[in-house]
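Changelog note: in this version the structure field was regenerated for every chain. One regenerated record is shown below for reference.
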Amino acid sequence: MKRITNALPLASVIMPCNNAARFIAEAVESILLQDFKDFELLIIDYGANDKATNLILSFDDTRIRYFEFDTKQGNCGARNFGIAHALGKYIAFADAEDLSLPYRLSTQYSMLENHPDTFCVGSSYEIMDVAGRNKGLVNKPLDHEKIKVLLFADKNIRQPAMMIRNTLCRDFGFRFDESFSYAGDYDFVVRVAQKFKVQNISKPLVRSRIYPEQVFTEKREMEEEMANRVRRRQLETLGVDFTEEGFHLHLKLIHHRYLEDHELDQVEAWLNRLLTANQQKMIYDNDFFYSICENLAATAIRHNRLGGWSIEKKMIACINEILVPGSKLLEFGTGKGTEALLHNYQVTSIEHDTQFCISLSKEHQCMLAPIEGEWYSPEEVKSVLSRINFDLILVDGPPGTLRQGILNHLELFKGIKSVFVFDDMDRELDRKTMITFCKELCLTYKIIQGDRKQFAVCRQYPDDPSNVDRIPFK
């Protein structure tokens, strides 16, 4: 299919796809229905199969240009192929699983037309699950200097929501680095931001489909490894020497991970090194860079204390008295406490929110169990309990009054010999839920005062059922 016109389009939309039959029709249609009409859509199929090809060819629209591409060159190679064939003044990128909202192209086109000093523009975006159900909004920083600094942590202009000036590629030679099988878009945006102005639009322009990971897969591990190549290069560009231990601390800091006390002691020295390096090279706006480092330090201190919505350090200490390193722990809910628990234990988390259902390491499995009525999906919980013998079960979710829903599924826990820990015992409903749970399962409990709130440790009766509220710690 070719454009039947002699005029060049104002925009080229590049959509790589690989075995994309499941969602390709929706993705293509979301582009064709844009209120901005002067574009071409280049579909670069690097994993062609008959079903996907037939779906693409079924669209009777002369703006579509379809290419079958060598699968060995991957997503970055497919994007570069599209760039080489793009005729538009501007180039937008789209994914074969995501949806562009009807005003996406017109909004980004106007932004670039009215801001000639901007070379790349992204946007905030909505997230949806596999079924297309809305799961929330992800806001992105708008200002160039802020984006540039925050790229230390992660890509803050998403490729499926990105539009660039074709001059970036045609006159300045920008391409995706094909040595990146993953995180190539992150690398691309970092390189552009170092030389040209990049911005985001506050209005969400795309709907991005997310797939909750149930395990720390090899793919996710490779994605993180390649993203770390980009993070290393940014430190090297800044002129900062670092050891592997120092780089590991940097990663935990920029990702707002839980830091142990001895790691927290190293944060100030590390951030001062970054500030000194930037004062010498002036790669980033000095005042803004300082404010970001200050915020990182404050966040690290806050997370180290745990508490608030998270479990407290006193609970961690109590669990450490009960369990030996390497024990298996089931946690209802995820958060900063999960990161602290992973220092010593194999953790499986039950999470209802797709956005937070992410495994944090090889020792962590985060299982999606959507809320069904008043509690987690009982079938999903049952599948976890039937596969693994847990040494301790931490009840810290679901949120609000939903936690009492556990009482409607007591049969799932009968015969389980785990120690149970219930958080938020200052809340009357949660305390009553815990007491009823213990009574029905013949457990004894002990309520312990933390720094800011209480928690309960529950286990089998020692010998005499009359010894309620008496827990023998090891």
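Spot check on this record: The longest helix spans residues 218-238. The radius of gyration is 26 Å.
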